[in-house]
């Protein structure tokens, strides 16, 4: 069934949303809801279809063409198609790398546009923002070295009002620039504060996961930069903000995952021994069986890291 659906997608145009959106969703779930053996074959089928990849290229490029003021408050059919496209490409990056599948057609993505989407947001729907962050996590995990992807817009120069980043740091973090890293971290922090007000679990999980992956990428590239980012005093203010809402417990999944990140990179100025003890005390008093799955998983990661 993958063959005719792939061929059907390849004959469509990006504006054929009614047909494309469910088709891309079918391809996405075909990758995720099958056995490992079938998964490898499915990846090969999708990556061998040049017309499908060309269509995905057009879908990704159309992300930057929508005018923010014209976006409706709810998710439009165009935005839903963009979400499906970005999620499918992120999955293809993941599985192509896992199985070392042959690539017949590369995809080109403007890194500056991707980063600016997360940094400035421009009224983009939450689900589209989450989908693009999922893609960003995929390329960070692969150190921007996927044979499926060509990155353009590398190391964009900062604006005159911003400090000139160190060329040595930019070289070490390539294709990211130091100024882009700082802007992205601040934007992710601001998003978490916004999420605290909106109580959007999907977005909070995506933001924390993106921050985790970014610091992991930085640690591989330049440990000093990674430790500097992880120990920024603003992180402590962020934790206080997250804990100042209606639910003051440390046993919130985003709080636990942030704490795990700071423990991992030994950010003692952000998380103290006292707070680690508080989390363990709360966990000891909680009914573990009744905790939500996201909280239970985050608590397991935290305790394992400690």
TrEMBL record:
The gene is Mei1. Coiled coil: none annotated. It comes from the Eukaryota. GO terms for biological process: meiosis I. This is MEI1 protein.
